[in-house]
Design goal:
Largest sheet: none
Distance between the termini: 36 Å
Radius of gyration: 17 Å
Order of helices and strands: HHHHH
Oligomer: single chain
Number of helices: 5
Helix content: 55-70%
Number of domains: 1
Shape: globular
Number of strands: 0
Strand content: under 5%
Amino acid sequence: MALRLLGWAGWKVHSDPLMWILHLGYAWIPVGLLLLGLSAWIDAVTPSAWLHAVGTGAMGILILGVMSRVCLGHTGRPLKLPATLVPAFWLVIVATILRVAAAMTLLPYRPAVIAAGLAWMAAFTIFAIAYWPIVTRARADGRPG
């Protein structure tokens, strides 16, 4: 998986948030699998850390990234991310890092989990607010649907 990700040359899409968020979300899968493997050998890597890397990282980031891209394409709009959504991407990234760090007890558990939850909620609230007009109005290209 990590080799496949490297082959996609994600570093070339750093200027396109709709693409780099997908690469970053996918990158959490091999990170999670690495954490799973390391948890058998290194006590500091807790057995649940990988679940948070894959669940919060891969799933959360990919869900937000795919929804952002698909909503634009399926409503006949250009695949250009609204500027208001970039902070949402960063918030879900912060939520992932906090959640994995809390699972590995690198940060105080309760405050880190609360902060991660707040960042997660803020990210998806920003998405809902930014995309509400996009998904509730007619297609921009005039086609049915």
